Structure formats: structure tokens, C-alpha cells
């Protein structure tokens, strides 16, 4: 009897050693969303900045390469691409970012980039004529083009109609936008004397392999002293690094109480090397 028990135990041990990892539960676990053996993250974020330079010439109208010079108005189309690597239909995906104090938000383009008539066309687009941003930030209610602390900001749609209003302070402005035929939510608020912009993009649930792309359009602004940025020849940072978070609901007494972070990852800040303008 003891011999049979020993043989049975040896067989069980051998079976456990040779059993595939997926049968042991190391494969993808959709119910609890724990990392699988391959450590594939639930969501992926990619960010690239393209700069529109004055007096562009072929072949590189847009570039994310230096040099950049002091006192020049630059525009960047920041492409933010978010992809779900697994089913996140019961979760909420959100993106957070903070711009440097030298920049202001001009607008948001969804799905593909657009340019107003006073800017050169973005390369690779299928448009044959300029188009306004899908959502334009209008700071002109107080008589100035630049965002002013506690001033009003209007969000205009692509037809130039007022879509939403807010304030250049901690309250900011919040509005819904159509991205890939879904309704996403954007929230921008400002802090400090230099009106540093904070950007939030709430995507919501995502299906496996689903991707969403927006273009956050920013430019160098005028600092509180009245000088056009950049004002110093050094390395500046376009942003603090975009962070994507997967939020899950916490249930309290059979009610959705709040969304809490489950997973997050960030991109690196985008460096901008600024040089003194030798022609100035």
C-alpha cells in the first residue's frame, strides 16, 4: 500500500512539473487583470511631437529635431496613441499630462491632424485644403490672444461655434469630444502665475486591440513678463511625460463608489533644445 502511494505521489509531481503554464493559470486572466507570464501590459501609450517651423522648406516642413531658437513662435502637433492589449470593457482608461510653463494649448485634433488656414498643412494628410482644429481653445474674450490667469477660455468646434466655456484657473474647462466614433471627455485646467496647463483625456472602456489617437496642438506662449518664449538657450521640456492609467471601480454597498488606479505607465518627457538666435 505504501508503495502504491509513493508511485501515485511521484506521478502527481511529474504531472505538475510537465504541465503547461497556461494550465496552471499563468496565462492571461481577464477576470482579475493580473499580469500574465509574458508580462504584457494591459494598455500601451505612444507619444510623438511634430513641430511646425517658420519659413518651412522641403523636405522636412514638420520636425521634432533641433535647432529651436529663442523668441520664435513654434507650434507642435503632439500625437498621443493609446492601444489596449486586452479587454478593458469593464475598466476606465485615462491619460494625464502637464505642459511646460512656456507652452499654451491651441487645440485638439481627433483621429488625424488638421491645420487652420494660417498654418502650413501637416504632411501625409489627405486634405487638399486647410481645416480648423476639431476643438479650438479661444482666449480672446479679454482682448488678448494668450491665456490670462482667471480669464475666460472658450472651446470652439470645427465650424467656429462656441462649444463650451471655462476659466484659466484650477476649475479649467471640461467638454466631450468624438474620438473614433466614441464620446470621450477632455479636461484642461491651469495652475500658477505662468498658467501651466494640465491635460486629461478620459477614454473610458476599451476593447482588446482597440487604438485611439488624438493630436494635442500646443505653441510657445508669451511669459508673464511679456516676452515670447523661449527666453533662454537651454533644454526645455514640452511636457512632464504622458501617463495612461487603467482605473477599476470600487464597489461599496452594491454601488459604484469611485474609480481607483489599477495600472499606470508613462512616456518620457519630450526635450526641446533651444539655442540663441544668431540673427537676433
Characterization of the model:
The chain has 280 residues and is mainly beta. It has 2 domains: 1-40, no CATH class; 41-275, no CATH class. The protein contains 1 helix and 17 strands. It has one helix spanning 2-18; strands at 43-52, 62-63, 68-69, 75-84, 88-98, 103-110, 135-138, 152-157, 162-167, 173-179, 182-191, 196-206, 211-220, 235-237, 243-252, 255-266, 271-275. The N and C termini lie far apart (96 Å). Mean pLDDT is 80; it is low at 13-37 and 57-61.
Class based on secondary structure composition and strand pairing: mainly beta
Number of domains: 2
Distance between the amino and carboxyl termini: 96 Å
Strand content is: over 45%
By DSSP (H or I, 4+ residues per run), the number of helices equals 1
On the 0-100 scale, what is the average pLDDT? 80
Largest sheet: 8 strands, antiparallel
Helix content: under 10%
Please give the order of strands in the largest beta sheet: 2-1-4-13-6-7-8-9
Inertia-based shape? globular
Radius of gyration of CA atoms, rounded to a whole number: 24 Å
The H-and-E topology, N to C, reads as HEEEEEEEEEEEEEEEEE
Which regions contain 5 or more consecutive residues with pLDDT less than 50? 13-37, 57-61
The tally of strands reads 17
TL;DR?
This protein is mostly beta strands and 280 residues long. 6% of the residues lie in helices and 45% in strands. It has one helix at residues 2-18; strands at 43-52, 62-63, 68-69, 75-84, 88-98, 103-110, 135-138, 152-157, 162-167, 173-179, 182-191, 196-206, 211-220, 235-237, 243-252, 255-266, 271-275.
Amino acid at each position: 500500500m505504501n508503495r502504491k502511494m509513493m508511485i501515485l505521489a511521484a506521478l502527481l509531481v511529474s504531472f505538475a512539473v510537465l504541465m503547461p503554464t497556461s494550465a496552471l493559470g499563468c496565462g492571461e486572466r481577464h477576470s482579475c487583470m493580473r499580469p500574465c507570464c509574458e508580462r504584457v501590459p494591459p494598455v500601451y501609450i505612444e507619444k510623438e511631437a511634430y513641430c511646425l517651423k517658420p519659413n518651412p522648406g522641403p523636405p522636412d516642413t514638420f520636425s521634432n529635431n533641433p535647432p529651436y531658437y529663442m523668441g520664435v513662435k513654434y507650434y507642435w502637433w503632439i500625437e498621443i496613441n493609446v492601444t489596449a492589449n486586452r479587454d478593458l470593457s469593464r475598466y476606465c482608461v485615462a491619460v494625464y499630462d502637464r505642459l511646460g510653463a512656456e507652452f499654451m494649448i491651441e487645440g485638439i485634433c481627433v483621429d488625424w491632424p488638421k491645420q487652420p488656414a494660417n498654418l502650413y498643412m501637416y504632411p501625409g494628410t489627405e486634405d487638399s485644403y486647410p481645416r480648423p482644429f476639431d476643438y479650438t481653445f479661444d482666449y480672446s474674450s479679454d482682448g488678448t490672444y494668450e491665456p490670462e490667469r482667471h480669464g475666460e477660455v472658450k472651446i470652439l468646434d470645427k465650424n467656429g461655434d462656441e462649444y463650451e466655456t471655462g476659466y484659466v484657473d484650477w476649475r479649467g474647462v471640461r467638454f466631450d469630444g468624438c474620438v473614433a466614433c466614441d464620446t470621450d471627455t477632455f479636461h484642461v485646467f491651469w495652475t500658477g502665475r505662468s498658467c501651466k496647463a494640465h491635460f486629461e483625456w478620459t477614454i473610458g472602456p476599451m476593447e482588446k486591440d482597440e487604438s485611439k489617437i488624438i493630436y494635442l496642438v500646443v505653441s510657445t506662449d508669451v511669459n508673464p513678463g511679456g516676452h515670447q518664449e523661449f527666453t533662454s538657450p537651454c533644454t526645455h521640456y514640452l511636457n512632464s511625460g504622458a501617463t495612461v492609467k487603467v482605473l477599476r471601480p470600487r464597489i461599496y454597498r452594491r454601488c459604484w463608489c469611485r474609480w481607483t488606479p489599477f495600472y499606470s505607465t508613462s512616456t518620457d518627457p519630450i526635450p526641446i533644445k533651444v539655442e540663441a538666435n544668431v540673427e537676433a
